[in-house]
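User: Predict the structure for this protein chain, please.
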Amino acid sequence: MALVGENGSGKSTAIKLLCRLYEPQEGRITLNGKDIKEYNLNQYRQLLSIVFQDFSLFPLKLSENVACSQQYSRNSVSTVLAASGFASPQEKSTYLEERCIYRDYDANGIEVSGGEAQKIALSRAIYKDAPFMILDEPTAALDPQAEAKIYESFDKIIADKTAIYVSHRLSSCLFCHDILVFEKGQVVQQGTHENLSAQSGKYKVLWEAQAQLYTSA
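Assistant: Here is the predicted structure, written as structure tokens:
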């Protein structure tokens, strides 16, 4: 499911409500018919694998950044890094996963770009292997080609999980089973890309505005 809409329309707020970083001021959110506030907070959050826009990486081993632990499966780390498009087969042979990122504590540490950092954060979400993946602009720092490669394999990446993500690039919504369109804190439309782009409304306005940037170039 994709959440789309203009800046300030409520997309990230909805994500934070789902994660219980905010509590609803009215209404309620349910999971399997049960108010999420009735679940143990730590157990509830174990169901969620989240990438926010303002994620943090640490000057530790790449593997430790992905696993968020000093204990990890090296094979699993390699697999998720490849799934996110971070590590090529050639890079794997140089034990990239065991190198530190940044040079705060290691003069031989690897510096990563914004796009590479985002791939590491995405790898972290995949590694957790939670039933719900929540991604707030997961590919904003990637170039269009890298983004396209991730979305081409996105169904395989999420496997049988539920994925909810915020996106400003509507082209990334094409494969989604469902799209929620936000405006002024409200969900104003819901449906597939085909359905929403065929009817008048906010989604069609946003889609045509983005498409015009490419067709007029």
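The mean pLDDT is 86.
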